[in-house]
TrEMBL record:
<keyword id="KW-0496">Mitochondrion</keyword>
<keyword id="KW-0406">Ion transport</keyword>
<dbReference type="InterPro" id="IPR023011">
    <property type="entry name" value="ATP_synth_F0_asu_AS"/>
</dbReference>
<feature type="transmembrane region" description="Helical">
    <location>
        <begin position="20"/>
        <end position="39"/>
    </location>
</feature>
<keyword id="KW-0375">Hydrogen ion transport</keyword>
<keyword id="KW-0472">Membrane</keyword>
<protein>
    <recommendedName>
        <fullName>ATP synthase subunit a</fullName>
    </recommendedName>
</protein>
<keyword id="KW-0138">CF(0)</keyword>
<dbReference type="InterPro" id="IPR045083">
    <property type="entry name" value="ATP_synth_F0_asu_bact/mt"/>
</dbReference>
<dbReference type="InterPro" id="IPR000568">
    <property type="entry name" value="ATP_synth_F0_asu"/>
</dbReference>
<keyword id="KW-0066">ATP synthesis</keyword>
<dbReference type="GO" id="GO:0005743">
    <property type="term" value="C:mitochondrial inner membrane"/>
</dbReference>
<keyword id="KW-0813">Transport</keyword>
<feature type="transmembrane region" description="Helical">
    <location>
        <begin position="72"/>
        <end position="94"/>
    </location>
</feature>
<feature type="transmembrane region" description="Helical">
    <location>
        <begin position="100"/>
        <end position="120"/>
    </location>
</feature>
<dbReference type="GO" id="GO:0046933">
    <property type="term" value="F:proton-transporting ATP synthase activity, rotational mechanism"/>
</dbReference>
<comment type="function">
    <text>Mitochondrial membrane ATP synthase (F(1)F(0) ATP synthase or Complex V) produces ATP from ADP in the presence of a proton gradient across the membrane which is generated by electron transport complexes of the respiratory chain. F-type ATPases consist of two structural domains, F(1) - containing the extramembraneous catalytic core and F(0) - containing the membrane proton channel, linked together by a central stalk and a peripheral stalk. During catalysis, ATP synthesis in the catalytic domain of F(1) is coupled via a rotary mechanism of the central stalk subunits to proton translocation.</text>
</comment>
Amino acid sequence: MMSNLFSIFDPSTNLLYMPINWISTFLGIMFLPYSYWLIPNRHYILWNFILNKLHNEFKTLLKNNYFKGSTFIFISMFSFILFNNFLGLFPYIFTSTSHLNLTLSISLPMWLSFMLYGWINNYQHMFTHMIPQGTPSILMPFMVLIETISNIIRPGTLAVRLTANMIAGHLLMTLLSSTGNNLSYLFILLLILIQILLLILETAVAIIQSYVISILSTLYSSEVN
């Protein structure tokens, strides 16, 4: 039972000894030609509207920051994570964002680049950021320790937050669907209704988690300058 339950997160499916499940991560490239259409369709107009809203919001958060002109990085992160989250909602499609090796590959290099830039170019600001204004002298060593730990665990919390949210909903839907064979017709209809509501909830989670990861990354970058 447990092996079947977690088999939906198994990336070991291969063809000619190649893990083809991970290829789904790059399927978003297929949608790039839509941006070059002479007459954009309604989907592209809606997507372009969302990206412009995100650009304005990220630019506000990055005010007076070195990364102010680099909102493209965070918008690309949002698009990449959102697309892969949505892919996982379709049957028999591998959810790459439910694995820590992908989410850590996104969060760790981003966090490391922020830290290196901050400590190399603005080390005084980084030191002062560790001790909030008005902290008593006796508490300063503890505050430095707490801030250091909180900075170190940031990439891990970003990765685990995304992975856990993607796994939780998928496991719940799989667990409920596995009980359908033993139910009566009335309960099967109720189960289908619950599955539809869970699918709507998972769609909202896919959007919210993409936005949260992008916003938090933007806020982390604003702290190093």
